[in-house]
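Dear Dr. L.,

I hope this message finds you well. Following up on our conversation about the binding site, I have prepared a predicted three-dimensional model of the protein together with adenosine-5'-diphosphate. For your records, I am including the exact sequence and ligand specification that went into the calculation, followed by the C-alpha cells. Please feel free to forward this to your student if that is useful.
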Amino acid sequence: MLVLKGLRTWSFLAGSRYPGSAWPTRALVQSGRRKKLSSGAREHYCTTSRFPDPPPAGKLQKSGGETKSVICIEGNIASGKTTCLEYFAKTTNIEVLEEPVAKWRNIRGHNPLGLMYQDAARWGITLQTYIQLTMLQRHTRPSRYPMRMMERSIHSAKYIFVENLYQSGNMPEVDYAVLTEWFNWIVENIDISVDLIVYLHTSPETCYKRLKERCREEEKLIPMEYLEAIHHLHEEWLIQQNSFPVPAPVLVIEADDDLTKIIRQYEENRTRILTPSNKQWCL
Ligand SMILES: Nc1ncnc2c1ncn2[C@@H]1O[C@H](COP(=O)(O)OP(=O)(O)O)[C@@H](O)[C@H]1O
Ligand SMILES: Nc1ccn([C@H]2C[C@H](O)[C@@H](COP(=O)(O)O)O2)c(=O)n1
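The resulting structure of the complex is given below.
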C-alpha cells in the first residue's frame, strides 16, 4: 500500500470480485433494454431485475404502511445531485431527502467520512455500516407526502461504495460478507423499493472540477482515479446493467452541462421524473 504524506492512499482498481451476493447478477440483469428519448434523456428499464411490486406479504412496510412513489437521484460524487434536489424542492410539492452527510461527518464527535478518506482500509467498514443504517432510516422514514425524492439510496451505497472498497482491496472479505448479509436481510425483509432512478450522467473530469470548487474538507484527498472507479461502477450498474440488480427504471440525464442547460433538461423531463408510475415511456 502506498503511503502519501502519512496517509494511506487508495488502490482503486484491483481485480473484480463478486462473491457473497445473494442476488443473481449478470445473467439476470442482462435482459435490460434501452431506448433514446426525444428530450435527450435515455431510459433503461430492466423488468426482470426489479424488486417485486407490491412487496411480498410479511415484508416490513414503510412506516405507516402508506404507498408512495420514491425517486432516487443517483450519480458520482459532485455530479450535481444536491443541486438537482434543491431545484425540485423549490418547484414541486414533494418530500426531498438529501443524503445525511452531516451525520456521516459527525457521529458523537467522530467523523467517519473524514476517517475513511484518510485510511479507507481501516475505516471503510465503519463508514459504510453507518451509511447503510442512515440510508435505511431515509427509506423507511414516515412521510405525509405522496412522493419522495431521495439523494442516492441504500442500493447505491452497497452496489457502488461498498463494492468499490471491496474491489479495490480496501475492505477485507469478512467485512464485505457481514455488510452483504445485513444488506440482503434488509432487501428481503424491509420495503426499500424505488420507483424511478434518475441517473445524473457525468464524466469523472466534470465531477473532479465540481468537487474542487465545492471544496469539502474531507474530500481534498480524493484523486481522479477514485472518481473514475465510482463512475465505472455506476455505468456497469445503471447503463450496462450487468453487475447488480437495478431496483427501478432508469432515466439518464446528461449532466455535464452548465446549470442553465441542466435546468432545461429537468424541465423537459419534469413529467417523466414526477410521474414514475407512468411507464408509457418505458420499453
Ligand atoms: N450543472 C452544473 N454546472 C456547474 N456546477 C454545478 C452544476 N451542478 C452542480 N454544480 C456545482 O458543483 C458542486 C457539486 O454539486 P452538488 O449538487 O453538491 O453535487 P452532489 O450532491 O452530486 O455531490 C457544487 O459546488 C455545485 O454548486
Ligand atoms: N455510500 C456512500 C455514499 C457517499 N459516500 C461519500 C462520497 C462523498 O464524499 C460523500 C457525499 O457524497 P456526494 O453527495 O457528495 O456525492 O459521501 C461514501 O463514501 N459512501
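In brief: The two ends are 46 Å apart (CA to CA).

With kind regards,
A. P.
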